[in-house]
Amino acid sequence: MAVCVAVIAKENYPLYIRSVPTENELKFHYMVHTSLDVVDEKISAMGKALVDQRELYLGLLYPTEDYKVYGYVTNSRVKFVMVVDSSNTALRDNEIRSMFRKLHSSYTDVMCNPFYNPGDRIQSRAFDSMVTSMMIQVC
Where would one find the signal peptide in this protein (predicted)? Predict the structure, then answer.
């Protein structure tokens, strides 16, 4: 089960973060921000290979006792971070990859909105409902 989805700007500030309301939201903010160091390490390690292969999915960033944190980065260095409940063993890497592609597609729709100012927090109802359906779908 996905318990947190975050979109982080190129400058490492959150554009959007959504977590399961029953959980400790501050804990997920902390997990997302600590995962940014791992994302930066993976991006610098891949370097030019990331651009050449067009592989945007970073895979598992780090596991904790209760959760697994996955990462994805766009060509414009916007980062998507997803925290998944580790008890969900049925969730495969291909499913997480497709969830990130769906999230990236919805993010692109938000960016194409002429009324959205780049760099502002994402407050789109369509984007929010897509994230909610993605979190419910994984359950």
Answer: none
